[in-house]
Here is the input.
Amino acid sequence: MNKADKHPDYKKMYSVVKKLFLKTEHFKHGPYDETFFTTRVYETAKEIVKHFPECSKEEILAAAVLHDVGKSKLDSDKLFKGCTTLGTADEEWCKHPALGVPIAEKIMKKLGHSPVFIKRVSFLIANHARRGGKMKDKPLDLQIIQDADLIADWGFSGFIRPFLYTGKFSHQSIFGAVDFSLHGWDPAKDKALINLDVSKKIANKKLKLQDELLKQLCKEIKSDLL
Here is the structure.
């Protein structure tokens, strides 16, 4: 491993990714704020890798920063068409792992990373969305990045995103966002896709917080006018 591989400049990576997101129509500040989501995946990955000294920490964290950069190349005219549910994946959305690989490779090469490092990180980016039974014998590093990507959107993040989404796309009131949070998403279905027991424990803590926040909000909006 060269110097860049041993000590990746994650902040520089994120700076480049953030600029690419901010140039787009969709992936900036709002319901799909990928600048914020990227930081959450990175921090969640940091939390998971602490439990696995045998994993490739530097490569995992680099992938966490770069894994969704392909979303900056999605066609905004084809994106989210007819989507009425937060997080609905459409055909255009599913292109982002493959689109992200050449962008990430260019960023890492510019930052001085070795071909081996770039190849390994690119593998994680290309396969980070292949959850469940879509891929057999997944290496530990991939399991970690997949889990971080999934549970980073839970907890406080999972609490606020329905309100951002319904405000921009669905034109619903706060009551519509609350209804979606209560009835429009089944966390058990997504939890089944988590690979590691450590990740499941982290996910449970996040979902408990999310549930507590939602219960408190339900109390706040309770009224005899409704």
Remarks:
- The two ends are 63 Å apart (CA to CA).
- The mean pLDDT is 86.
